[in-house]
TrEMBL record:
This is Crooked neck-like protein 1. Belongs to the crooked-neck family. Pfam families: HAT_PRP39_C (PF23241), HAT_Syf1_CNRKL1_N (PF23233). It comes from the Eukaryota. Residues 79-224, 312-471 form the Pre-mRNA-splicing factor Syf1-like N-terminal HAT-repeats domain. It is found in: Nucleus speckle. Gene3D superfamilies: Tetratricopeptide repeat domain (1.25.40.10). InterPro entries: HAT, HAT_PRP39_C, HAT_Syf1-like_N, Syf1-like, TPR-like_helical_dom_sf. One of its GO terms (cellular component) is precatalytic spliceosome. One of its GO terms (biological process) is spliceosomal complex assembly. It comes from Sesamum angustifolium. Involved in pre-mRNA splicing and cell cycle progression. Required for the spliceosome assembly and initiation of the DNA replication. Keywords: mRNA processing, mRNA splicing, Nucleus, Repeat, Spliceosome. Its main location: nucleus.
Length: 641
């Protein structure tokens, strides 16, 4: 009973005595005199250090030859690649891998590792910084520029990338390049520190006027009190008191105007909210009107109501995004289905007024079809020749110094031809060649003049074509083909000679083939042989050897009468075969001595030679070639008893 009374429910019905913590009794020190040998803390630490077990370290590997070095590199690369497969997201692994490759002086592999790391996460600017630092440290300046360009293009809001890029160019003494980088950066409207860095850069090189123009752009980008004060102090420092006073006056005017503009903006926002509510009511009212027309109106009224509803929807779409050209196309098709000329032209004019935001062709490729549809409508549907010509003239004012569309030039010229106005068509095509030359324009212009029989104009056009693009083998071949069709053999040959002497050609094999075919068609076999020899001096390609041999096999001596041809057919075949064999022998000798690694080409050459010998029948000697063919050796396994 006593135990029950003493127990506490908070302690799980245990007594306080049972829950007491019993501590060990402190030992009493009986002898408090100092020991005869005193041990210091330094001795204790030294003994602990001596008794500590030696750290297990991997043995140092000494590499004595290239084979061991290759094995070591292969093993390390395998370790890194295995680690990357497991933790691809860990950027420190990529960095260690790239630095190891750099330590091995294998810069191409190190660069490859950096590129693979960027594919994992290109948004990590530290990777770009380390990559560029690797290129700069190893004096790969152009590679470093490439890295900085890509980094600033992908991450234009990371200021550190711009600062590092500019610092590198300035250290290299490329002040103009650093200025261009600053200009690219300023297009992104950075914070005040970026603009001030640009200004300090110009002042370091005593470019006060440039710094002043940058200040003007700075206060336009950041119209704040601190920016205007900096501008005024800059003018005061340079002794321009009047300019400083003008800065303060402009700052007062502009900041006051911004305050008034802010108040107007609040008013506009409130009006826009009410307009949205009214537009919602208008849409609801229009839906009720369409339902009423469907229920009580006739067919014409229903169609008008539906067209009006769609027109309302398209207007809303182009108002929200005027550069949505697909919406404009749909809107135009709707109006063309209604047939109201005034409305159609009005929508076209509104659509073409929305010029793309940048002068780059990719932004204009969709927009230009608005003009194309417009001119086709005016010519075919409205049949208004004068308005069609006016629209073409307006369309041809696009910025041709940056890009152009050959389709528009050709359509405008063909339109004038349909109106029997050849001189105007020639002026249009001449302007196209002068302002924005293209292959399509040259080809079509030459085709038109050729159909009209103006050979001299064709020659002048080909000359212009080749001045603009001297590497174009198509133009050289067509020009020579024109001269040949006019029986101007020497002119055609001279053109071919000029063509093959060009330092760079886009398709030289086609040009040489055309020249050789031309000489064969003229039965100039000696010239053809000389051409083949010149071609072999430039390239020893298998196809050239085979073509040369086939030509020799098919060539016949000139100046023989019909009776002589019948009598000496066998002799002619024999001579042709001998010349072809000589070519094959030269080719085989080249592939054996100068290019022994091209075994497949040598086998193909012998196969062609064998086919040619068999095609000559009795004159040919198949065994001669078979003796030269590679033989297959079969290795038999030794029998184990």
């Amino acid at each position: 009973m006593a135990n029950a009374r003493d127990s506490d429910p908070n302690l799980g019905y245990l007594t306080k005595k049972e829950t007491e913590v019993k501590l060990p009794r402190p030992t009493r020190v009986k002898n408090k005199t100092p020991a005869p040998i005193q041990i210091t803390a330094e001795q204790i630490l030294r003994e602990a250090r001596e008794r500590q077990e030696a750290e297990i370290r991997p043995p140092k590997q000494k590499i004595t030859d290239a084979t061991e070095l290759g094995d070591y590199r292969l093993r390390k690369r395998k370790e890194f690649e295995d680690l990357i497969r497991r933790v691809r997201w860990n950027k420190s692994v990529w960095v260690k891998y790239a630095k190891w490759e750099e330590s091995q002086k294998d810069y191409a592999r190190a660069r490859s590792v950096w590129e693979r790391a960027l594919e994992v996460d290109y948004r990590d600017h530290t990777l770009w910084l380390k990559y560029a630092d690797f290129e700069m440290k190893n004096k790969f300046v152009n590679h470093a520029r490439n890295v900085w360009d890509r980094a600033t293009q992908l991450l234009p809001r990371v200021d550190q990338l711009w600062y590092k890029y500019i610092h590198m160019e300035e250290m290299l003494g490329n002040v103009a390049g650093a200025r261009q980088i600053f200009e690219r950066w300023m297009k992104w409207a950075p914070d005040q520190q970026g603009w001030l860095s640009y200004i300090k850069f110009e002042l370091r090189y005593n470019e006060v006027e440039r710094a002043r123009s940058i200040f003007e752009r700075f206060v336009d980008c950041h119209p704040k009190v601190s920016a205007w004060i900096r501008f005024a102090k800059f003018e005061m420092k340079n002794g321009e008191i009047a300019r400083a006073r003008n800065c303060y006056e402009r700052a007062v005017d502009k900041l006051g105007m911004m305050r008034r503009r802010r108040n107007c903006l609040w008013l506009l926002l409130s009006l826009r909210r009410s307009a949205r509510r009214q537009r919602g009511r208008a849409e609801e009212l229009y839906k009720k009107f369409v339902a009423f027309e469907k229920q009580y109106g006739d067919r014409e009224g229903i169609e008008d109501a539906i067209v009006g509803k769609r027109r309302f929807q398209y207007e809303d779409e182009v108002r929200k995004n005027p550069l949505n050209y697909d919406a404009w196309f749909d809107y135009i098709r709707l109006e063309e289905s209604c047939g109201d000329k005034q409305r159609i032209e009005d929508v076209y004019e509104r659509a073409i007024a929305n010029i793309p935001p940048a002068q780059e062709k990719r932004y204009w490729q969709r927009y230009i079809y608005l003009w194309i549809n417009y001119v086709l409508y005016e010519e075919l549907d409205a049949q208004d020749v004068d308005r069609t010509r006016d629209v073409y003239n307006l369309c041809l004012k696009i910025p041709h110094n940056k890009f152009s569309f050959a389709k528009i030039w050709l359509m405008a010229a063909q339109f004038e031809i349909r109106q029997l106005n050849i001189d105007r068509a020639r002026r249009i095509l001449g302007s196209a060649i002068g302002m924005a030359p293209k292959d399509k324009i040259f080809k079509k212009y030459i085709e038109i003049e050729l159909q009209l029989g103006n050979i001299e104009r064709c020659r002048k056009l080909y000359e212009k074509y080749l001045e603009w693009s001297p590497e174009n083998c198509y133009a050289w071949s067509k020009f020579a083909e024109l001269e040949r069709s006019l029986a101007e053999t020497e002119r055609a040959r001279a053109l071919f000679e000029l063509a093959i002497d060009q330092p760079a050609l886009d398709m030289p094999e086609l040009l040489w083939k055309a020249y050789i075919d031309f000489e064969i068609s003229e039965a100039e076999y000696e010239r053809t042989r000389a051409l083949y020899e010149r071609l072999l001096n430039r390239t020893k390609h298998l196809k050239v050897w085979i073509s040369y041999a086939k030509f020799e096999a098919s060539a016949r001596d000139e100046g023989l009468q019909e009776s002589d041809l019948r009598e000496s057919d066998y002799e002619q075949k024999r001579k042709s075969l001998q010349r072809a064999r000589a070519v094959f022998e030269r080719a085989l000798s080249y592939f054996r001595t100068s290019a022994p690694e091209l075994k497949e080409e040598r086998a193909m050459l012998l196969e062609e030679w064998l086919n040619m010998e068999s095609s000559f029948g009795k004159v040919g000697d198949v065994d001669l070639v078979r003796a030269k063919l590679p033989k297959k050796l079969k290795k038999e396994k030794a029998n184990r008893n």
